[in-house]
Specification:
Blueprint lengths: L4 H9 L25 E2 L5 E5 L9 E2 L6 E2 L6 E2 L14 E9 L9 E8 L19 H10 L12 H4 L9 E6 L8 H8 L1 H15 L3 E7 L3 H11 L5 E6 L8 H9 L14 E5 H13 L5 E7 L7 E6 L4 H7 L13 E2 L6 E2 L13 E3 L20 H5 L6 H9 L3 H6 L10 H5 L6 H60 L1 H32 L1
Parallel strand pairs: 1-13, 8-9, 8-11, 9-10, 12-16
Antiparallel strand pairs: 2-7, 3-5, 4-6, 6-7, 12-13, 14-15, 14-16
Helix pairs in contact: 4-6, 5-8, 11-14
């Protein structure tokens, strides 16, 4: 039985939280990068801006090769609900619009705008909506959309869609400052240095959504961020900064909702199903930047960490910056690694980049360069010993061992029956596996294969529907033609039957006239012969 609103508020006030099943406690390694302020980097010469950096659809191109653009200028347009634009991260010239290696585990090239910096970093004209309290909700949402904001803490869902006034009342607006992934400290530094702007973003969301309570959740391994956010929110009515015990993956959406409210988001459901909406602190910062300052989303904080970096730190990285430029700034030394390896994201949920030319995108929060033997090798996989440690660690209460068997056997139907798509890919199962099986890799491959099959089936179904519709249309047209011909023949038959006698008289009269004419002509011919 879930707790009601009053019980939740009472327990939050005394910091008596709930818990989620499973979870692990890896070394956080955050002090590698969180000891210094966020740095500004030199402008890269080239920026590779993918035209789609979020869940949803890509926008319509507004620029062409050879165009000169200014910083913050829109490069694509919102042409449907699930599209958000991308912007020029600096001023310069568009030198290419073609495929470029993606910030994705596959590295599959995707359509990208290549921008050559002119070094001037000249802004386009900005249009803030500073008096947002007197603006309509639609105006605010449109401003957020045109600023190109999508979720910056996870999959990157369009923020303007998520922020539309839901049909049901929002009880809890949850601001996620957990950042539970080891090594990553970008949100920690953002909260320490820009707490007031994050608070402004929260205020804008409160104005839009009218929640009953705001909860700012921060893990207890970030005492400085907890203190500064508490100060920033101390005079706000119904804002509460909550200290959450450190456990991975407490920052997962469903897990954090369970910790704070005891409520469980149903399978295939949304947080709104249990009266909650959640935003990352980076998203709140970007919302305030867009509304108050008029600046679109063209940069974000990225953690550069791992012992193969000589200078681990957090930086403001322009979207489109190639990872190689970040590595140069942080003094990446590949000699510390057996083979060069750069991971986008953390050690639990991140993925190895196929190329250092992959760009920073809206969801990039970390580049990890681990030293030799700093992380477990994925090449040491051994046979499963059926110890069930993975099931004990799973925060989604799944059966990772069975999912692994069915994934390895490509038994996709069974994998789905065991709720594969409820897996949040947190990596807790792989972390505790004594056989060092990269379980999440199997799950990702299986999910991709199932989605691919579903897409192929959808295409085949649509093709079959089109074929059947065409056949039905042709048959209908043929039947219509045959019916038309039948009716015409019937009409002729009825006309003949109705006027049968008159028609015969007319025919006989015509024949008689023709016969008389012929006889007259013959008589005239004989008369002419007699005269001669």
């Amino acid at each position: 039985m879930f707790a009601d609103y009053d019980e939740i508020i009472s327990r939050l006030a005394s910091n008596q939280l709930w818990d989620f099943p499973g979870g692990v406690h890896p070394r956080d390694e955050k002090t590698l990068s969180n000891q210094s302020v966020i740095q500004r980097m030199p402008l890269p010469k080239l920026l590779y801006v993918p035209i789609k950096q979020h869940i949803g659809n890509e926008g319509e191109l507004l620029v062409a090769i050879g165009d000169k653009v200014k910083k913050g200028q829109r490069l694509t347009n919102q042409n449907n609900t699930l599209a958000v634009p991308v912007h020029a991260s600096t001023s310069g010239k568009i030198i290419a619009i073609d495929e470029h290696v993606s910030a994705h585990p596959s590295g599959i090239p995707e359509m990208t705008i290549t921008l050559e910096s002119d070094g001037l970093d000249e802004w386009t004209q900005l249009s803030p909506l500073a008096d947002y309290r007197n603006a309509s909700a639609q105006q605010i949402l449109e401003h957020i959309c045109l600023a190109g904001i999508s979720g910056m803490g996870g999959a990157g869902f369009p923020t303007h869609v998520k922020s539309q006034q839901p049909n049901d009342k929002v009880e809890f607006l949850i601001i996620n400052g957990i950042e539970c992934e080891p090594y990553i400290s970008s949100d920690d530094r953002l909260m320490r240095e820009h707490a007031w702007q994050i608070r402004q973003g929260i205020d804008i969301l409160v104005h839009l959504l009218q929640p009953k309570q705001v909860i700012v959740a921060i893990e207890d391994n970030k005492p400085e961020a907890l203190e500064i956010m508490a100060i920033a929110c101390q005079q706000a009515v119904n804002y509460q900064v909550v200290r959450v015990p450190t456990k991975y993956p407490a920052g997962g959406e469903k897990q954090l909702i369970q910790v704070l409210t005891s409520r469980e988001v149903p399978a295939q459901g949304l947080p709104m199903d249990v009266g909650c909406l959640m935003y990352n602190v980076g998203t709140c910062y970007a919302i305030a930047d867009a509304i108050v300052e008029g600046r679109p989303l063209i940069e974000r904080v990225v953690t550069l960490t791992g012992r193969a970096f000589e200078r681990p730190q957090n930086v403001w990285a322009l979207l489109g910056t190639p990872v190689s430029h970040l590595c140069e700034h942080a003094a990446y030394n590949a000699e510390h690694q057996t083979t060069p390896q750069l991971i986008m994201g953390g050690p639990m949920m991140g993925f190895t980049l196929s190329s250092s030319q992959a760009p920073v995108i809206k969801t990039t929060n970390c580049i990890l360069a681990p030293k030799r033997d700093e992380l477990p090798s994925i090449d040491n996989e051994r046979a499963c010993i059926r110890c069930s440690d993975c099931a004990d660690a799973c925060p989604a209460s799944l059966l990772p061992q069975q999912l692994y068997w069915y994934s390895a056997a490509k038994d996709y139907q069974k994998a789905e029956e065991y709720n594969l798509f409820d897996c949040i890919e947190c990596g807790a199962c792989a972390y505790v596996c004594p056989s060092e099986i990269p379980l999440v890799h199997y799950y990702r491959q299986t999910k991709a294969a199932i989605k691919s099959q579903a897409e192929e089936k959808e295409k085949a179904d649509k093709a079959r529907e089109r074929f059947e519709a065409r056949q039905a249309r042709l048959a209908k047209e043929k039947a219509a033609r045959e019916e038309k011909h039948r009716k015409a023949a019937e009409a002729r038959k009825q006309s003949l039957q109705k006027d049968g006698g008159a028609a015969k008289d007319k025919i006989a009269a015509a024949l008689a006239r023709a016969k008389a004419k012929k006889a007259a002509m013959a008589a005239e011919s004989e008369s002419n012969k007699d005269k001669e």
